[in-house]
Design a protein that fits this description.
With 278 residues, the protein is an all-alpha fold. Helix content is 74%, strand content 0%.
């Protein structure tokens, strides 16, 4: 028994070392990005490169925020990502609740259509979607970057399992007490599926933050660009300052890194809680 425990401890130690090495390898590009933010272009191109800057240079960040509307790009990204995440969670919760708890004609067929939409890439219908936005005169507006991303088959499918796992007796008891359908949904069901709502919000927030193609088509003026599009425009402009581009990429990556570290426990719990029916 002692030998078995010793072998298990040795195996765990080796596994932890391997995982640590892999984690460090994945973090190396991020470390390189952050350190190059504080180097001049000459130091970035220097061979062999320095691991850390000899002199911490803040000129890249100063040029980014003074010469470019970087702060406005950050605000735009937060507005688009936050409202996309919030409203898409609400719409997905309403749809998932209807499919899981209500009964209507054609329910199964309609649910299969919603699930099948997950397999259709957005690029296949981006042309007609763009035409609709143009006809609504939404180009270069927040609603153009938010509204087309609200209804998602993935969000409906994800929350469906949460609502389906709730015993029907809870809903029936509330109906007997005189609660209407909206009250049951808002005051009874939503608090129960809160982990799933949180996980879906984080997923949608990150997806909207990293969106490139659709926001590139919608944002025409420099002030309406999101951070992702703004940083990409720095790479397209005729600008020899590679440090400025690196600083922009670092600023774009930091919010997502912070969100992951702050909410990783909630995300892991929410992403798996509805997968098992108790």
């Amino acid at each position: 028994m002692l030998r078995k425990l010793a072998r298990m401890e040795k195996f765990d130690l080796v596994t932890n070392i391997v995982v640590l090495v892999i984690a460090l390898l994945f973090l190396l590009p991020l470390f390189w990005l952050l350190t190059n933010t504080f180097k001049t272009s000459t130091e970035i191109y220097q061979m062999p490169p320095d691991i850390l800057p000899k002199h911490w240079f803040l000129g890249n960040l100063e040029e980014l925020f003074r010469g470019q509307p970087a702060f406005q790009w950050i605000v735009n990204s937060f507005i688009v990502s936050f409202f996309t995440g919030l409203l898409s969670v609400l719409i997905s919760a309403l749809a998932a609740y209807g499919f899981a708890k209500l009964h209507f004609k054609g329910q199964t067929v309609l649910f299969l259509v919603v699930i099948a939409s997950i397999m259709v890439p957005k690029e296949t219908f981006i042309v007609p979607l763009f035409d609709v936005v143009v006809r609504l005169n939404w180009i270069d507006t927040y609603q153009a970057m938010i509204v087309p991303n609200l209804a998602t088959g993935f969000g409906t499918f994800m929350l469906y399992s949460y609502f389906k796992a709730i015993p029907e007796s809870i809903r029936e008891s509330a109906k007997i007490d005189g609660a209407n359908e909206w009250t049951v949904f808002y005051k009874l069901m939503l608090p129960i599926v809160k982990p799933g709502l949180g996980a879906l919000f984080i997923l949608n927030f990150v997806t909207a933050w990293n969106d490139y193609l659709w926001q590139l088509l919608m944002a025409r003026s420099k002030e309406m660009k999101t951070l992702t599009i703004g940083v990409a425009s720095l790479q397209q402009d005729v600008n020899p300052n590679i440090g400025l581009r690196v600083a922009g990429a670092a600023i774009a990556a930091l919010p997502m890194i912070l969100i992951f570290f702050l909410f990783q426990r909630f995300f892991t719990k929410g992403a798996t809680a509805g997968a098992v029916k108790e």
